[in-house]
Amino acid sequence: MAIQRKGTSPATFDLFADEPPQPPAVEQIGPASFVLRGFALPLVDRLLPALESVLIQAPFRHMVTPGGHTMSVALSSCGEFGWTTDRSGYQYTRINPQTGEAWPAMPEVFMELALAAAREAGFVGFIPDACLINRYIPGAKMSLHQDKDEHGYEWPVVSVSLGLPAMFLFGGHQRSDSSQRVPLLHGDVVVWGGVDRLRFHGVMPVRQGEHSLLGEQRINFTFRKAR
Ligand code: MD6
Ligand code: FE
Fold this sequence. Notes:
Shape: globular
CATH topology: Jelly Rolls
Structural class: mainly beta
Region (Disordered): 1-22
Strand content: 25-35%
Domain Fe2OG dioxygenase: 127-227
Number of strands: 15
InterPro entries: Alkb, AlkB-like, AlkB-like_sf, Oxoglu/Fe-dep_dioxygenase_dom
Bound molecules: N-[(3-hydroxypyridin-2-yl)carbonyl]glycine, fe (iii) ion
EC number: 1.14.11.33
Radius of gyration: 19 Å
Organism: Pseudomonas lutea
């Protein structure tokens, strides 16, 4: 007599019986905010060498906030504008203050990913002019903040997660509003805009771990239209 797996009927042959249930590829986390699960995975082979060449020209460094705190996240940028912070405030600049040179051009594969993700979330025609690159080592975090240093908010932010997992906090329009916890994995892309564009958000301290491609770190790209 054949052994029946629990829950499988003898009359049907379930092709996917051995697969764990898969979460939906697109999760909506706000009226105009979406998590595109694994969306960046097909491009990872091209993203990583492109990232390396950007980092040779504009190495990661820890910046200081206007309040005088050194960020636990290390930053770099590429594209026409780079995001910087120092004691005088946050701003987008054309020149990397660290090197005195223009920020590295946005690699084609970065642009390709940002456009495709924005389109998938309904933001057709998004052309970012800034890509902030964040590196989290275990323990690094990003406190709740709003992305509001751009000149306008008509375009979304596209955020790509690579490497170690992280718990993204997605809050409301007031700092004191409660936050949803959204786990982000290697290859996930978050797109938000419209009525959600100015919602508070942050990242909980990244947990110790080793990613097969990126080692002990999480890398995040956030694409924006700064000007
Ligand atoms: C991060 N992300 O995921 C930090 N901002 O490492 C952000 O601050 C962020 O993911 C705006 C939109 C999406 C984001
Ligand atoms: Fe942000």
